[in-house]
Amino acid sequence: MSDGGGDRLVDGFRLVVFDLDGVIYLIDRPIPGAVEAVGRLRAGGHLVAYATNNASRRSSEVAELLTGMGVPARPEEVLTSAAAAAELLRDRLPAGAAVLVVGADALRAEIRAVGLRPVGRADEEPVAVVQGYGPQVGWAELAEAAVAVRSGATWVATNTDRTLPSPRGPLPGNGALVAALRTALDRDPDLVVGKPEPALFATAARRADGAGALVVGDRLDTDIEGARRAGLPSLLVLTGVHGVVDLLAAPPQARPTYVSVDLAGLFDPDAVVRVPGEPTAGGWSVAVADDALEVSGSGRPLDALAALCALAWSTAEAALLPVRAASPAAERALRALGVPD
C-alpha cells in the first residue's frame, strides 16, 4: 500500500464484513474475483460476515444463494436489515401485534418469526408499518401503508438505499419507494434500521473479539458511512454503485479508509491505497488549475486517486471541481480509474 507498508491489508484484521450487492454479487451473479477472495480469507483463518440492506431475502436464503455461487456461507454469518427491523419491532411492541409489511415475503417471515403478526391492509389496525425492498411492491401496498401511518402506526424503513446495483446499471432501491411514501405523507420514517445506521456492523464486529474488523462496501452513503458510525475502518471497492467522482465529492462522514478497484486489494499491497494521500506523492502532482483538479506526472493509478482525494477533500469547493489530465500517463490513469473525460 502506498502508506508505506508492504503487508497485505487483510493481515491487520481478524474479521472482514462484506456488503453483498455490488461487492460479492450483482443481483444473482458473482462479481469476478469474489468467490476466490472469500475462499482465500477462510483458508487463511479469517472470519467472514455479510451485512446487507436488501430485505428481500432471509439470512438462510442469502446463505443458500451465496453457497450456490461458490461462496460457502452459514445463515448466522448473514446480517440483514429485515431481521434487524423485526428484532427492533419485537422489542418495542407486544407479542402478536399487527405489523403492516410493505416488501417481500422474507420480511413477512422475519416479522412472523419474532412473534408479531404481519398484515397487508390498514383496516387490520396495524400498530407499525415496516417497509423493505421487494420487486413486486406497487401502489396498492404503498397506499395501505400511507393510510396506516396517517392513522398513527409507527413507520420503520429497513433502509433508504436509493438504488440497487445491477449488470444493467443502478435500479430503484428501497429508498426510492420510501421517497414515494415520504412525498405522500410529507414526513420521514420514524426509524431507519439498515446502513448507514451502525447496528449491523456493530453486531458483526463483536464476533472479532477485539481482534479487528474491516468493512468492505461499494456505497459511500451506506457501507462506508455505516462503518464510520460503528468506529470501523473501511475499504471502498469500485465494483458497484459509487465510483471515483462520487468518492472525490464524498462528505467527511462517508470517506473510506482504503480504496481498491476490486477485492484483490485485500491481498495485493499494490492493488489498494489508503486515502487521502498527499497532493504530490507516488509520482503524481494534483493542483487546482483553471477551475479543475489537474493531474500530472506518472505512477500507479491508485496513487493518483489518493492524491486527488487529498486536494478534493481539502475544501468543499475543490470537491466539486472536474478532474483533468495534464500528461499522457495521467490520462491513462484516470481512464483506468473510470473517471469520465
TrEMBL record:
Instruction: Provide any one GO MF term from the record.
Output: phosphatase activity
Q: One short Pfam family name for this protein?
A: Hydrolase_6
Q: What species does this protein belong to?
A: Micromonospora echinospora
Entries under SUPFAM superfamilies matching the protein? HAD-like
Record InterPro entries: GNAT-like (IPR041065), HAD-like_sf (IPR036412), HAD-SF_hydro_IA (IPR006439), HAD-SF_hydro_IIA (IPR006357), HAD_sf (IPR023214)
Per the record, the domain of life is Bacteria
Q: What is this protein called?
A: Haloacid Dehalogenase Superfamily Class (Subfamily) IIA/haloacid dehalogenase superfamily, subfamily IA, variant 1 with third motif having Dx(3-4)D or Dx(3-4)E
Return the GO cellular component terms, semicolon-separated. Answer: cytoplasm
* NCBIfam families from the UniProt entry: HAD-SF-IA-v1, HAD-SF-IIA
GCN5-related N-acetyltransferase-like domain mapped to chain residues: 282-338
